[in-house]
Write a structure and sequence with these properties.
Helices cover 51% and strands 19% of the residues. The chain is of the alpha+beta class. It folds into 3 domains: 1-201, Hypothetical Protein Pfu-838710-001 (Beta Barrel); 205-359, Alpha solenoid (CHAD domain); 361-490, Alpha solenoid (CHAD domain), CATH 1.40.20.10. Strands 1-5-4-3-2-6-7-8 form an 8-stranded antiparallel beta barrel. A hairpin with a 7-residue loop joins strand 4 (63-70) and strand 5. The protein is globular and about 75 Å long. The two termini are 33 Å apart.
């Protein structure tokens, strides 16, 4: 059975702002409202999720529809997934010829082992819009998701493209964002439920592996990498807005740094594109604002009680400013604009080098890693003798090399490449840790002065600095000596 390709853009809205949503103003009609109860089935061990799909039965009145959705590809805002649906008469899954390519895996799991794990209970107001020769189905979902004894509120807007180019979805999204404080959504209802089950809904999100296929083109790989970075940022952003603890701030900043590195690595795709430069400016702004809080977080654990109290007061002020920035229309629109550019930007629609877009990602990745390693090797010579500015350039290059090696890691899956990856990852992490702490020491005086504290002479850290420089130089030597996992047997895997 052939599945149906679903292309939809999801926006999140704080339930407290629902009263501001004027359906007639946004969509030209009030729409019809239905009560939907959706039950997601899995084993307690998550075998369905591990198979790369979600299995649900949605009840609307007396009607029930079973849907199997491909869930392997994590998206940001724009969800493009294939699904297989059929009517059912009961509350138990039916696995047969209509189950699509996931049918064999689900039957191997065993339908008797599948039990309700997640329930989403919501009211959906929906309708259709004809725009510029295309058709969009819009829906506003309000309710809750329950799983594992926990409940999470649900308030989101879905825009599904029924006919026409994807740009129509973003035109409507901008119209909505002009009137409401919406944000790009990064997880499906099923994943929200699984995060409740796993008790990770309130945990800081670290970078996840990027699932890249060796046969993928550069045009397909770049947005996959960028979406992974955006996803990490958006998962941490609510935690920064809610409480602003140190780790979510750090991970949100890491996510934006990774995204900027992804843009830098793939810059030949959009050389001269003013929109790419504009988006990078916005990302740099947000990264810097997060950095102001993170820099204080790095100092507080090392401070004496008196200084620590003053630093915590300065952090409260910096966090309040950061939260105001994240809540601003500028920050919210920046994320929508990034997703739009990744989807329908000029680099896709009017590429300067179509042949580069069509190139497979493996040679592109290997060349990029070679270039970064060569740059690091050149900049890091006699590392312990370098001044702070040149050492900072080494740190930035090492960080880019680490991020790039993580982006492209799954392209080189052979056992020998995996062993080389582990050694390379350990070496680059050790170098980055040493250079990062040295950078914190260099920043300390400037940060203290910025918040009105006299650093005095007690913050010179001469002995600590000398020790870190020795360790950094050793880590640099280890990294340069490490075998490249992207060359030799890795390429032919």
């Amino acid at each position: 059975m052939t599945g149906t390709l679903e292309v939809e853009l999801k926006l999140e809205l704080d339930p407290g702002d629902r009263s501001r949503l004027d359906l007639i103003d946004l969509f030209g009609a009030g729409g019809a409202t239905d009560h939907l109860v959706t039950t997601y089935f899995d084993t307690p061990g998550g075998d369905v999720r591990n198979a790369g799909c979600a299995l649900r039965i949605r009840q609307q009145g007396e009607a029930r529809v079973q849907t199997i959705k491909a869930a392997k590809d994590k998206a940001t805002g724009l969800f493009t997934r294939t699904e297989w649906s059929r009517a059912v008469t009961g509350d138990r899954p039916v696995l047969d010829a209509t189950s699509g390519p996931f049918g064999p895996a689900l039957r191997a799991i065993g339908v008797d082992r599948l039990t309700p794990q997640i329930v989403s209970d919501f009211h959906r107001t929906h309708g259709l819009i004809d725009r510029d020769g295309g058709e969009i189905e819009w829906a506003v979902d309000e309710g809750a998701i329950r799983a594992g004894g926990s409940v999470a509120p649900l308030c989101e807007i879905e825009l599904e493209l029924r006919r026409g180019p994807p740009g129509l979805l973003f035109d409507l999204a901008h119209r909505i964002a002009d009137r409401l404080p919406v944000r790009i959504a990064v997880i499906s209802k099923a994943e929200r439920g699984y995060r409740l089950l796993d008790q990770t809904a309130g945990s800081p999100a670290r970078a996840e592996p990027v699932a890249l296929d060796r046969g993928a083109t550069v045009a397909a790989a770049f947005p996959a990498i960028a979406h992974a970075c955006l996803r990490q940022f958006r998962l941490n952003e609510p935690l920064v807005l809610a409480a602003g603890e140190a780790e979510p701030v750090h991970q949100a900043r890491v996510a934006l740094r990774r995204l900027r590195t992804a843009l830098w690595l793939h810059r030949p795709l959009f050389a001269g594109d003013p929109q790419a430069a504009s988006l990078d400016t916005e990302l740099r702004w947000l990264t810097a604002r997060l950095g102001e809080v993170r820099n204080l977080d790095a100092l507080i654990p090392r401070a004496d009680p008196d200084l620590g109290e003053r630093l915590r007061a300065a952090r409260e002020q910096a966090l309040a400013a950061l939260q105001a920035d994240l809540a601003s229309a500028r920050a919210r629109l920046a994320m929508i604009q990034v997703v739009e550019w990744l989807t329908v930007g000029a680099w896709r629609t009017r590429p300067q080098d179509p042949a580069l877009l069509a190139e497979t990602i493996v040679p592109f990745a290997a060349d990029a890693l070679d270039a970064l390693r060569k740059r690091l090797k050149r900049r890091g010579k006699r590392l312990a003798e370098l001044g702070s500015k040149k050492r900072h350039k080494v740190r930035i290059t090492a960080k880019k090399l680490r991020y790039a090696s993580e982006f492209f890691a799954m392209l080189f899956p052979s056992p020998k490449a995996a062993r080389r990856q582990a050694a390379f990852r350990d070496a680059v992490s050790a170098l980055q840790d040493c250079l990062g702490e040295l950078n914190d020491l260099d920043l300390e005086r400037r940060v203290l002065e910025r918040v009105g504290i006299d650093p005095g002479k007690r913050h010179l850290h001469r002995k600590r600095r000398a020790k870190l420089l020795r360790h950094a130089e050793h880590a640099y030597d280890e990294l340069i000596a490490a075998k490249r996992f992207w060359r030799g047997p890795a390429i032919s895997a």
